[in-house]
């Protein structure tokens, strides 16, 4: 198996090394693991692409490249330049330092990389490691992901739904902030929402008197709702959430059409 990996924490991030080990185990001794990752941290860029300016790319070693762009840029670079004549069988993005459960999915560059791979017609999985007091003190804060990551990826490859729709499914995996031995299992869960944990702004004045704004995140230990991804993580489970890039609220289409029909007369009388 040939696997492309990327992340949003940057080419030198500890989580990327964890992901490489996971990918190497999945690929097997006859497989290949290729890395195209951001030269610098790209956390929070979502599915951004560098459409209006070029992206410089540099070879860092065998099958290892750094690109001055977002995770989605890196996937594009991997597919259409670095691996142009050797298309991967799978794209893995992560392992992110910090969870990408609940509303974090919307902002996540890690998820954005996997999303771009799915839009390019490839199986893709995003992986993130929840951080908290119980694992930050471990010798390896990524222990849960490092220990269970390959098994989760292999199980998804063998058992998950892999369609070939235009907006094909991809998967978002989050490991709980606990020691690997304490992980209770895997739960398939929908995306939740942490009320009161949204991003905000903190203003600061520089020594030169100029005003700067820092984006601040909210508490990550808040519940995202019963049965949801973030709640599963807080309860000690690995969460798996199926996603796709189709943002249409399909459940509202019929009702919205009916409401608009009441106010707009097709004959031009309304």
TrEMBL record:
Hydrolase among keywords: yes
Family, per entry: Belongs to the SurE nucleotidase family.
Tell me the classification of the organism that encodes this protein.
Answer: Bacteria, Pseudomonadati, Pseudomonadota, Alphaproteobacteria, Rhodobacterales
Question: What keywords would UniProt list here?
Answer: Cytoplasm, Hydrolase, Metal-binding, Nucleotide-binding
Q: Which GO terms describe its cellular component?
A: cytoplasm
Swiss-Prot/TrEMBL catalytic activity = a ribonucleoside 5'-phosphate + H2O = a ribonucleoside + phosphate
Which positions are annotated as binding a divalent metal cation? 8-9, 43, 96
Task: Tell me the ranges covered by the Survival protein SurE-like phosphatase/nucleotidase domain, including all copies.
Answer: 3-195
Q: Which gene is the coding source of this polypeptide chain?
A: surE
Q: Which Gene3D superfamilies match?
A: Survival protein SurE-like phosphatase/nucleotidase
Name this polypeptide is given: 5'-nucleotidase SurE
- Name any one Pfam family assigned in the record: SurE
Among its keywords, does the record have Cell division?
Answer: no
Which purpose does this protein serve, as stated in its record? Answer: Nucleotidase that shows phosphatase activity on nucleoside 5'-monophosphates.
- Cofactor or coenzyme needed: a divalent metal cation
Q: What is its EC number?
A: 3.1.3.5
The free-text cofactor remark is: Binds 1 divalent metal cation per subunit.
- Listed GO MF terms: 3'-nucleotidase activity; 5'-nucleotidase activity; exopolyphosphatase activity; metal ion binding; nucleotide binding
| Species | Ketogulonicigenium robustum
User: Cellular location of this protein?
Assistant: Cytoplasm
* InterPro entries noted in UniProt: SurE, SurE-like_Pase/nucleotidase, SurE-like_sf
């Amino acid at each position: 198996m040939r696997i492309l990996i990327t992340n949003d924490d940057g080419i030198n991030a500890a989580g990327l090394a964890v992901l490489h080990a996971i990918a190497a185990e999945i690929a097997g001794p006859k497989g290949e693991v290729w890395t195209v990752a951001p030269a610098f941290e790209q956390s929070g860029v979502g599915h951004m692409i560098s459409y209006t300016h070029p992206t410089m790319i540099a070879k860092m070693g065998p099958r290892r490249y750094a690109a001055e762009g977002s995770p989605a840029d890196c996937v594009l670079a991997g597919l259409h330049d670095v691996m142009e004549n050797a298309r991967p069988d799978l794209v893995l993005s992560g392992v992110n330092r910090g969870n990408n459960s609940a509303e974090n999915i919307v902002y996540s560059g890690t998820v954005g990389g996997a999303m771009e791979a799915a839009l390019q017609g490839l199986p893709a999985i995003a992986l993130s490691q929840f951080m908290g007091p119980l694992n930050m003190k471990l010798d390896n804060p990524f222990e849960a992901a490092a220990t269970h990551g390959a098994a989760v990826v292999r199980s998804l490859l063998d058992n998950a739904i892999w369609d070939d729709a235009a907006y094909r499914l991809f998967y978002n995996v989050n490991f709980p902030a606990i020691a690997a031995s304490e992980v209770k299992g895997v739960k398939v869960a929908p995306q939740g929402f942490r009320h009161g944990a949204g991003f905000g702004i903190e203003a600061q004045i520089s020594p030169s008197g100029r005003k700067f704004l820092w984006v601040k995140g909210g508490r990550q230990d808040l519940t995202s709702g019963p049965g949801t991804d973030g709640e599963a993580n807080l309860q000690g489970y690995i969460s798996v959430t199926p996603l796709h890039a189709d943002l249409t609220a399909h459940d509202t289409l019929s009702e919205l059409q009916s409401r608009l029909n009441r106010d707009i007369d097709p004959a031009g009388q309304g």
